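<goal> How does this chain fold?
<sample>
Here is the protein in question

***
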Amino acid sequence: MSFLSSPDSPGHPLRHALLGAALLASTAISIAAPAKVLPFGPNTWIDLQRSGARPHAVVFSNTDCSHCPAAIDRIAASLRISGSRPRLIVVVMDGQGQDAVLLADRHYRQADALYAFDGDAARLRYLVNPEWRGLTPYVVLLPAARVPQFFNGVPPEAMLRRFLQP
């Protein structure tokens, strides 16, 4: 019997605490997990900008983007520790028709809402930001009632901290 497996050992409460923390972390992700993939059409960006009572961090991704999962993880972790409770929105530009795959992906499950482009990708990118050329991850910080900030990649830590301040 190992030291951590004995109910009488001093490590026993620690083992239970670690297991409990892991369970809570996995539950937190599954509670916030989106139930469906929503269409991101021409009016979606306008609607997101108008819902300014609560800040949003929007991550635009592709299914073949190698840097996107880490970007989503990093932003999700920053948002979880924030007192301002911003929403994490993930938009998968090439995800239309792949709902089951997207909903099962652990990175996308961290989102409060999950979208897939529904329409011409170039037009939808232009509606978000005419200067965006399609690089991913593309992150937009939508502060409540303030001007959006656009980033190729994860925003610098100082920008994330400023965004997360109430």
